[in-house]
Every structure is written in C-alpha cells, then in structure tokens.
Amino acid sequence: MQPYELTLAEAADAIRTRHLSPVELTESVLERIAQKEPHLRAYVTVAADRARSAARDAARDIAAGHHRGPLHGIPVGLKDLIDVAGSATTASSLVRADHRARTDSTVAARLAQAGAVLLGKTHTHEFAYGLTTPQTHNAWDTDRVAGGSSGGSAVAVAAGMATFALGTDTGGSIRVPSALNGVVGLKPTYGLLPRTGVTSLSWSLDHVGPITRTAEDAALVLTALAGHDPRDAASLSVPATDYRPRSGTDLAGLRIGVPRTYYFDHVDPETEDAVRRAIEQLHDLGARLVEVEIPMTRYIQATQWALMVPEATAYHENTLRTVPDLYQADVRVLLEAGELMTAGDYLRAQRSRTLMRREWARILKEVDLVAAPTVPTTAVRAGQETVTWADGTVETVSDAYVRLSSPANITGAPSLSLPVGHDSAGLPIGMQLLGRPLEESVLLRAGHAYEQTRPASGLAPAA
C-alpha cells in the first residue's frame, strides 16, 4: 500500500508511531496529484512547495516530541471558498480572479494549528451555486459529473489526491459529491463549524464540513475544527468534544427511522436496493427500525429555494450590477432571479423553516436518526440536464440531487453520507444518516459500525 492510499486515521497512527514521515506522505500525495490531476481537474491550484515546507516542519516538530494530534502532518485540500492568508480565493469564478485573502479563515487557522499540510484549493461550482461542478470529472468515470458544489474536494479524496478535504454545504454540496464519488461527507449541525473567512452562498443555510474516506476520519477532523468563533454570528458555544466513535459494532438500543414517504419516492431502483440493504445491516448490528413519516414534504423544495436564492443575490448585489458578464450563465440567471423574489416570499420560507424544524424535532424524539438515500441516482453523464423517472416525471439534475439533501440544511440538523455500494455501471451509491442537532457522535457511531462490517473501500479507479 502506498502512503496516499491510507485513511486519515491510518496515516495519523503511522506518523505518531514514527512508521511514516509527513514528508513521505505528502510526497506520495503530490505524486498522485501529478499523475491524476490532468484527467480529473479537482484542483484550482496546487501549492506543492508550500506543502513540502509544511511537511518538513511537521516532521521536525514530531521528531522533537511536539506531536499536535491526529491531523499533524496530514495533507488536506480546501474548497476554493475558504480563505488562506496570501492565497487566492477564486470561488472558481472570473469575478474573483484578482482576489487574495488577507487572513486565514477560522477553519484554515485551526487546521494550521493542528499541523495539517495544505495541498491547495479545490474546485467548486461557481460560488457554490450548483450541484455538478462542471470543471471537475467524477473519480469513477470521467465522462460523468463530480457532483457539487464541493466536487473538487470529493474527487481529490476519492482519487487519493488528498487524505482529507473540507467542503461547504448549502443544500447538499458536501454530501452530494461525496455520494457520487464513494467517500464520506459530513454536514455538521448549523453553527458547529465556524464560517468566518468562507465565501457565502446563503448565510442561513451554509455549513462547513469534512470530506473523508471513513466516518472515523470525519470524526477526527470535526474534533479539531468544532468550537465557537465570536466573529460568526451563527457560531455555537459548545463544550470541546472528542467525536471519535468507540470501537465495536454493537448498535443495540439505537432507533433508526426508515422513511415511508419522500426519501424513497422517485429514486433509482438500484440506489433504493443498496440503501435498504445498508439499513438492514444496521438492523443486524442491533438497531431497531421504526417507520417514520417525513413532514411537510410538499414545501421542502420551495422552502430551500426561497431561502437560498434571495440570500445569494443579496451577497452578490454589487458585482452582479458591475460585472455581470463575468459570471457563468447558469449562476447569473439564478442571481438575477433572486432580484424578482419578494420579501413576502422570503418571510413565508422562514416561517416554513420554523415549522419544519419543529416537526423534525418531533420525529427525532421518536428515533435517534433517520436513514435514507443521499441522492436519488448515481452520477449522470456530463451535460445531461434532466432525469426521467419510471412514471414519466422529468426533473432537472440539480433538483434531483438537492431534493433529498436539503431538509438537513433547512432544519440545520447534522447529516452524514456514507458509501453503501455501487450500481450496475460501477458507480458509487450513498446513504445519509440524519440526526438531532449536536448529536454528530450518534451518526458517526452508526456510520463507523456499518463500515466495520464491510471490506475496506479502496480508492476510485481514477483515469
């Protein structure tokens, strides 16, 4: 096994026990980037010299007995919305072509404090406003979409071009590309990870979170990054928590909600079969399955868009008027549409969100988590605009991908996407676990237990 193939937990253990140097790990990942990046295009920029320097610093610190923890010496990619002092934050847009960050974002500063090695910035759909990330190719089939908007981060992790990465999630943008590329994506509770220094899409829906190869890896990153930041008005004050799941696979006493409505409607049969098998595996580990009704399903899509669109337009108000031609056409249309939405529409969406949160809280008193597909179908071919379901219903690709992930953004509840198999074309299928606010540990425990019952998943067969 090459160092770039190691999970974060495996690499951290090897570095801690001096069986692997941060320099060896970083060089291995950089060589992998040189080999695979031309085909996959996960990165906006790769800061190889900076990464090598940071790896040497980590190696010296560890050799001197100053080991900072499991992220020390571990290579990471950051979605190109996340500020790093002195580096460009382009948001994959010409609008930001000349931008340079003056200070680190809070999460970048915490990664640096933990000793992580920054590899570079990963592609996003322009300003995170899309579900395909067209610049980047799927790690399993380069003719298919990577998913978005954190497509570059997910592909980098799936292909061994980063040991872990950070993304952002406003309607599914961590979980969707994670599901489509066969990796783990965690959207934490709203406000658990600070967003200071992170370019916003929609302030009331935006989350920062990790993309990793395992649930255990996600827990390691979450432990290092969670914590209050007074500069983020939504940031939560919570006690320091070690989110690492305990060993073992016993899920006795865990109540898992299985949706009767919404989450299995208009879902590809192979996706449904794989997710239901995974749910049965959780049952075999001792969990109790409870059927649940998903509330207010007819309002989910309208609420998501009525919150996101006007907030995004407000953020881009100045540049939309001064340099509209620098935006890609799909993003510009959405931003212009936001100017046509009324205050009444926005307030009704806020009221709908309040009701939705209350109803989800009621469900999550009856069960500890809800298990469902992350997305209704696997990665579509690049350029495909719609999905046609068996009953003749036609849905845009973006609407299809966001449909099952957006409830967790509207409610602010944590959601973890796990790979649970492949379809007949060999494309990954994802299952998401949704839980109570601030109960990431429950999701990570269930995800980790499930992973222990499966063969270790290797890297994607990148081009």
Automatic annotation (TrEMBL):
Q: Where is the Amidase domain?
A: 24-444
Pfam families, per the entry: Amidase
**Organism taxonomic ancestry:** Bacteria, Bacillati, Actinomycetota, Actinomycetes, Kitasatosporales
Q: Which GO terms describe its molecular function?
A: catalytic activity
Q: Which SUPFAM superfamilies match?
A: Amidase signature (AS) enzymes (SSF75304)
Q: What is this protein called?
A: Amidase
